[in-house]
Write a structure and sequence with these properties.
The complex is a heterodimer of chains A (about 120) and B (about 120).
Chain A lengths: L2 E3 L4 E5 L4 E3 L2 E3 L5 E7 L5 E7 L5 E3 L5 E5 L4 E6 L8 E11 L2 E6 L3 E6 L1
Parallel strand pairs in A: 2-12
Antiparallel strand pairs in A: 1-4, 3-9, 5-6, 5-10, 7-8, 8-9, 10-11, 10-12
Chain B lengths: L3 E4 L2 E4 L5 E7 L5 E8 L3 E10 L2 E4 L6 E3 L9 E3 L8 E8 L10 E2 L3 E5 L1
Parallel strand pairs in B: 2-11
Antiparallel strand pairs in B: 1-3, 3-8, 4-5, 4-9, 5-6, 7-8, 9-10, 9-11
The chains are: A mainly beta (about 120), B mainly beta (about 120).
Chain lengths: ~120, ~120
């Protein structure tokens, strides 16, 4: 069955420090992968997506993610975190099933940024 | 451009009451879906639709009904509200290209409390 795992429930970093949020997926075919960010009281906003080609993808707000097929991972990174990056981050995979498709989300990682 | 609009933003119900959460999108997206978000559980798919007149169940469909009479609207009905349905509900939509490679656009959510 398709699944997405985000092993870190909470992460705290200092402003200006680098960030890596982990995401592992389970899917038999070529995955379509997404990272979303959710600010408090808001819906989810797309940060970046990957389906093929270059395994390092750039997104909005200075984020990037690297797809590693051998590790079934799609980790999100940012070289220098800003206080406004404090939010919850969700990894998702688009999966085909029974002639249609659906999106499966991880449980999220809540990021706290220390001044 | 309104994107995905959800109403109401907040609602309190008594156990056993019924209600409809509204979702409308103005992007001519064929694919629409409903999720519930609970602490520590990420987003779980309730129902989804790949076009007008076509709906299917997601991961947690019990207690909910949907219909899709137009491309724009995808209402979610709670038949007889239960405290376990206290949650934040998100509607999302995306283009349908035959593969799950399109990011979803999310509404701002409906916060529902069942007493």
């Amino acid at each position: 069955a398709q699944s997405v795992t985000q092993p870190d429930i909470h992460i705290t970093v200092s402003e200006g420090a680098s960030l890596e949020l982990r995401c592992n997926y389970s899917y038999g075919a070529t995955p379509y992968l997404f990272w979303y960010v959710q600010s408090p009281g808001q819906g989810l906003q797309l940060l970046l997506k990957y389906f093929s080609g270059d395994t390092l993808v750039q997104g909005i707000k200075g984020f990037e993610a690297e797809f590693k097929r051998s590790q079934s991972s799609f980790n999100l990174r940012k070289p220098s975190v800003h206080w406004s990056d404090a939010a919850e981050y969700f990894c998702a995979v688009g999966a085909t099933a029974s002639g249609t498709y659906k999106y499966i989300f991880g449980t999220g990682t809540r990021l706290k940024v220390l001044a | 451009n309104a994107g995905v609009t959800q109403t109401p933003k907040f609602q309190v119900l008594k156990t056993g009451q019924s209600m409809t959460l509204q979702c409308a999108q103005d992007m001519n997206h064929e694919y629409m879906s409903w999720y519930r978000q609970d602490p520590g559980m990420g987003l779980r798919l309730i129902h989804y639709s790949v076009g007008a007149g076509i709906t299917d169940q997601g991961e947690v469909p019990n207690g909910y009904n949907v219909s899709r009479s137009t491309t724009e609207d995808f209402p979610l009905r709670l038949l007889s509200a239960a405290p376990s349905q206290t949650s934040v509900y998100f509607c999302a939509s995306s283009y349908q290209t035959g593969a799950p490679n399109q990011p979803q656009h999310f509404g701002d959510g409906t916060r529902l409390s069942i007493l």
